Amino acid sequence: MSHQGADERRLSETLSNIKHKYVVLSGKGGVGKSTVAVNIAVGLTLKGKKTGLLDTDLHGPSVPKMLGLVSFLSSGDETHLEPAILYDGQLKIMSVQFLLQNLHDSVIWRGPLKHAVISQFIGHTMWGELDYLIIDSPPGTGDEPLSVVQTAKPDGAIIVTTPQEVATFDVRKSIDFCNKLELPVIGIIENMSGFICPHCNKETAIFSTGGGKRMAEELGIAFLGAVPIDPQFVSRSDRGNPMVDFTSAGKSMEAIRMIIDKIVL
Q1: For residues 247 and 189, which has the higher predicted lDDT (pLDDT)?
Q2: CA nearest 35: which of 56, 63, 54, 8?
Q3: N or C terminus: which one in the chain shows less Cβ crowding within 10 Å?
Q4: How far apart are CA 244 and CA 250, in angstroms?
Q5: Model's pTM, two decimal places?
Q6: Domain extents for the chain?
Q7: Rounded distance, CA 40 to CA 11, Å?
Q8: Parallel, antiparallel, or unpaired: how do β-strands 156-161 and 91-95 relate?
């Protein structure tokens, strides 16, 4: 693909057809941010919303694996990128993985090139009209999240953390990042908040619990919900099936659904 970013006119035209844009951020890796982003996007789709999901993790894209799209290759040319389409056309997905000829190719790019490619993904992907665009950003406050905020001009950020203090400490940096860029924080999600035993259904606080909620209260930010660890999350993600699309009941699924209800406008 070309590494020429979309110009302002093209970006403006594309973004004008998207009603709501949310970027999913985390202060550190390993908190399940991509899993949350995928399940929010699918949950919005299941509510009848036309949804886009953009994976801007250029070095470790995991969204295609979670949606069973590892073999998909985007067609079209460099100014008309075709997204992957699921759920009868209601969900459109774009990831750098869709442009790599080999599944395990690495992407070795510096900052300016990353900015151009993210701009291209936002402006040149054939999103059409969307109710929501969910943007999964890599952890931290570096090139990719900065490019997303500058280019997509999201309406707000959804922050994902785990309960332990070392995670919430890093998340505060993401919130400071949002404040400095005047990006509203929609709310905080505490992921991996306890472990649900698949045998006895008892909940155990492996990583403690409540850290995300306490931080939200201290900072005056909405707390969207706590999602406990569920072994089915892992197994279903590995098989390319979002948890929220599962019909059985469970605390994790119910938590995700309640979070989505709070996000829908």
Answers
A1: 189
A2: 63
A3: C
A4: 10
A5: 0.90
A6: 8-263
A7: 24
A8: unpaired
CB 185 within 8 A of CB 159: yes
- Which residues, at least 6 apart from 197, have a Cβ–Cβ distance to it below 8 Å? 203, 204
Distance CA 232, CA 243 (A): 8
Q: Which residues pair with 20 in a beta bridge?
A: 132
Superfamily of domain 8-263: P-loop containing nucleotide triphosphate hydrolases (3.40.50.300)
How far is it, in rounded angstroms, from Cα 265 to Cα 261?
Answer: 9
What's at 62, amino acid-wise?
S
Mapping DSSP onto H, E and C, the string for the chain reads CCCCCCCHHHHHHHHCCEEEEEEEECCCCCCCHHHHHHHHHHHHHHCCCCEEEEECCCCCCCHHHHCCCCCCCCCCCCCCECCEEECCCCEEEEEHHHHCCCCCCCCCCCHHHHHHHHHHHHHHECCCCEEEEEEECCCCCCHHHHHHHHHHCCCEEEEEECCCHHHHHHHHHHHHHHHHCCCCEEEEEEEEEEEECCCCCCEECECECCHHHHHHHHHCCCEEEEEEECHHHHHHHHCCCCHHHCCCCCHHHHHHHHHHHHHCC
- 10 Å Cβ neighbour count for 120? 24
The number of C-alpha atoms within 13 Å of 226 and in the hemisphere containing its C-beta is 21
Q: Which residue has the tokens 């080999």?
A: 102
The CA distance from 19 to 133, in Å, is 8
Please compute the mean of the pLDDT values over residues 101-124 and round it to a whole number. Answer: 73
Q: What is the pLDDT of residues 11-39, one digit of tens each?
A: 999 999 999 999 999 987 878 899 999 99
CA 47, CA 1: separation in Å to the nearest integer? 34
Residues 159 and 46: beta-carbon distance below 8 Å: no
**CA angle, 209 then 210 then 215, to 5°:** 140
